[in-house]
Design a protein that fits this description.
Blueprint lengths: L1 E6 L3 H17 L4 E6 L2 H9 L7 E4 L8 H10 L6 E5 L7 H4 L4 E4 L4 H17 L4 E6 L2 E6 L3 E7 L2 E6 L3 E4 L3 H7 L5 E5 L2 E4 L3 E5 L2 E4 L4 E3 L5 H12 L1
Length: 236
């Protein structure tokens, strides 16, 4: 399923971009799901929603309040690497697109072949990508933390602490639910209270990991043999 978010605060443009996208994907026989947004703030919330996953964002740049470049900067600041294609009536902000690592920049009126090229490029990327972040909500704020930045997860009562290289983020979520969000070939539950990122491990000894940053993480005695094997397999 190719999942696309489209944002434009002009309803006519929004519907045209949606219709063109649907036409191309149906012609290419690509299964898809399109979600539309009429303002940048709701679009950011949608992209960062932990229950949603998007493979491409098609966004206008000129908008009331927050413009598309500013919205993209916020998405990047929050850690999301979603491919972005800007569709706009002006080329004024084209160079700014490089700052947020935009995939393409298409001017209105949209030439369908240009849009087709952008969609197929994003679709190809979606077919090869792996999940690269852990998503969760704290109060009214959504977070997407890059997996590369996470050292370990720790169960703390009814909360889970996400420990990164720069901060510890307390999340009101079940440890088992957070465990399901991280890839099992990289993150190992080594203790009832700890899930460690194997790429952050410096060495292993009996019943403990030592991280590259010098943090000692316990390993359950019952799980030691299995956990050690997972670490060795990961290193090979």
């Amino acid at each position: 399923m190719f999942r696309i978010a489209i944002c434009d605060d002009e309803m006519t443009s929004l519907m045209i971009n949606k219709a063109l996208t649907e036409q191309i994907l149906e012609e290419e026989k690509i299964e898809y799901k399109i979600t539309t947004f009429e303002d940048m703030v709701s679009m950011i919330r949608g992209i960062m929603d932990e229950n949603e996953e998007y493979d491409l964002l098609l966004s206008d740049i000129l908008a009331v309040g927050m413009n598309g470049i500013e919205a993209a900067e916020e998405i990047r600041r929050l850690g999301d690497k979603i491919p972005i294609v800007f569709i706009s009536s002006t080329a004024e902000y084209a160079l700014d697109g490089y700052r947020v690592n935009a995939l393409r920049y298409i001017q209105k009126p949209v030439v369908i072949d240009k849009l087709r090229e952008a969609l197929l490029e994003a679709y190809a990327k979606a077919g090869t990508k792996k999940k690269e972040y852990l998503s969760f909500q704290v109060a009214d704020k959504f977070h997407k933390v890059n997996l590369d930045d996470i050292i370990y997860l720790e169960s703390m009562g009814r909360d889970t602490h996400v420990v990164t290289r720069t901060e510890t983020i307390p999340v009101h979520a079940k440890f088992s639910d957070m465990e399901k969000q991280v890839p099992a070939d990289r993150f190992v539950r080594c203790h009832r209270s700890y899930i460690i990122n194997l790429s952050e491990v410096k060495d292993i000894a009996r019943y403990r990991f030592m991280t590259k940053g010098g943090i000692e993480i316990p390993i359950s005695q019952l799980q030691y043999t299995e956990v050690k094997k997972s670490f060795i397999d990961f290193e090979q």
